[in-house]
Amino acid sequence: xxxxxxxxxxxxxxxxxxxxxxxxxxxxxxxxxxxxxxxxxxxxxxxxxxxxxxxxxxxxxxxxxxxxxxxxxxxxxxxxxxxxxxxxxxxxxxxxxxxxxxxxxxxxxxxxxxxxxxxxxxxxxxxxxxxxxxxxxxxxxxxxxxxxxxxxxxxxxxxxxxxxxxxxxxxxxxxxxxxxxxxxxxxxxxxxxxxxxxxxxxxxxxxxxxxxxxxxxxxxxxxxxxxxxxxxxxxxxxxxxxxxxxxxxxxxxxxxxxxxxxxxxxxxxxxxxxxxxxxxxxxxxxxxxxxxxxxxxxxxxxxxxxxxxxxxxxxxxxxxxxxxxxxxxxxxxxxxxxxxxxxxxxxxxxxxxxxxxxxxxxxxxxxxxxxxxxxxxxxxxxxxxx
Length: 386
Known about the structure:
By secondary structure, this protein is α+β, with helices and mostly antiparallel strands. It has three domains: 4-97, no CATH class; 102-281, Transferase(Phosphotransferase) domain 1 (Transferase(Phosphotransferase), domain 1); 292-377, N-terminal domain of TfIIb (Single Sheet). 24% of the residues lie in helices and 26% in strands. The chain is built from nine helices and 19 strands. Strands 1, 2, 3, 4, 5 and 6 form a six-stranded antiparallel β-sheet that branches. Strands 13-14-15-16 form a four-stranded antiparallel β-sheet, with helices on one face. It has a three-stranded antiparallel β-sheet with strand order 7-8-9. The protein is elongated, with a radius of gyration of 26 Å. It starts with a helix and ends in a 9-residue tail after the last strand. The model has no long low-confidence stretch (mean pLDDT 94).
């Protein structure tokens, strides 16, 4: 075990204490303090080396598989730490590029406080693409959380801190750590160490980001320095989670609703998550207005309803109930709320509080609200209730 003080003493006067790096110049902030961040297992220093700003990762405790994880970035026995005035030891470090930017957690908190929905919508699109790549890979990050993702000054999302990563070569081993509790499935144990350990945090972060993009005031009520909005240990009764589900249901956000539902799964391996994330990032084409033969037809899969043509699925099976398309719209039920979607799957009209709805005929549809039959107008022709 090594201390942060030992590293500071070595790095702030590194002459003769490195094998290959030469003298290290630790960057300082406006108050003259060394620039670094420290976690449970490592401290990362912002250094200037060879005219470039770099990161130097220094370990506070022994870590396994660093060579397999970091490859050539690992500098074995690079830095000499004094363990007493007369003795010391050479320790491993990881040299990487310094990514200018803020953590995803910091960026989200700032955007939510400013009610900046546009920035939040950009972040959620970027994260869903990153999450899809992670959950379909044969590797895993192992401690996926917003604090371990940098939003670069160029607008990209860059994961950092791969110490707890899973690689196929590690199959059969136990996990070196369990990740941050605020983002992990409560049932995760050290025996859970495979390519699926990022499923739960990916789903949780995606759900929180989509919720905040729809309603940034959720941050005022539920935002946390330890997590985003939810507490996995009591997810089913979590008020932020319940409010999120209601929000997605009310607005017809079927993909996000189904991803959110996965957070109550009894295991950390979330069945169907990859397919849902793929649907979330899929660019929806313009709704078609072709012949009757091109009209998508209802189909059911695993108890949920979607729409397809003879060639392909055009609306994924996400809904609890549905009617055939008429006049370019289909009535679908998500949870307890009815909506009308177009042939690309976009929600065009939501009917909260309606106990029953009918398909459109002649530009009008019948709905039952508060026990009364009402008539609504086609939203693409007259976008108002009548």
